[in-house]
UniProtKB/TrEMBL annotation:
Protein family per UniProt: Belongs to the UPF0301 (AlgH) family.
Domain of life: Bacteria
NCBIfam families per the UniProt record, alphabetical: PRK00228.2-2
An example Gene Ontology CC term for this record: cytosol
Species per Swiss-Prot/TrEMBL record: Janibacter indicus
Protein name in the entry: UPF0301 protein ASJ30_10830
Cited Gene3D superfamilies: VC0467-like
Length: 185
């Protein structure tokens, strides 16, 4: 592996038509020679956060829904938070990269809330072997672009795919206008 993709976005190309990953935007949380793991940023579920984690609803970022992070371990919850500054994280928070942190959802909320600027809860995650992800990229399944903290906590995740591509400019900016079904164009 040349470079870790941790902290980058995997943006599905129009050729990726799998039901879960079509037009998805995945934040890569971890990537090394063996595995890659991330969460899908634009798959909100109809489930309020309190239905899964009672008491966490009030601190969750809009739209205050659980998001489907991927197809792996859907019965587990992952908390991703914005942690401003570069100070040492308090107990219960692990800084991953930049302002993006992982939250231990068993931690007392009164320790977490004052420290974070945003919080999103994901059911499950997306995972690949390093070779699997490299193969999907080689077959044209994913664009790799820089992430912005606003992408992770976007209030309108249903339009995130289009907006992330549009801000890339050039040919990727044009891809943002690709119709969902080109046969109907």
């Amino acid at each position: 592996m040349d470079t870790s993709l941790a902290g980058k976005l995997l943006v599905a190309t129009p050729d990726l038509t799998d039901d879960l990953f079509a037009r998805s935007v995945v934040l890569v949380l971890q990537h090394d020679d063996e595995t890659a793991e991330g969460v899908i940023l634009n798959r909100p579920l109809d489930t309020p956060v309190d239905d899964v984690l009672p008491g966490w609803q009030s601190g969750a970022s809009a739209p205050q829904r659980v998001f489907q992070g991927g197809p792996v371990q859907l019965d587990s919850a992952i908390g991703i938070a914005g942690l401003p500054g570069d100070q040492e994280p308090p107990p219960g928070i692990k800084r991953l990269f930049g302002a993006i942190s992982l939250v231990d959802l068993d931690s007392p909320q009164e320790i977490i809330w004052p420290q974070v600027s945003a919080l999103r809860i994901f059911a499950g995650y997306s995972g690949w072997s390093a070779e699997q992800l490299a193969g999907e990229r080689a077959r044209g399944g994913w664009y790799v672009v820089d992430a912005e903290i606003g992408d992770v906590f976007d209030e309108d995740p249903t339009t995130l795919w289009r907006r992330v591509l549009r801000r890339q400019g050039g040919s990727l900016g044009w891809v943002s206008t690709y119709p969902v079904d080109p046969d109907l164009n």
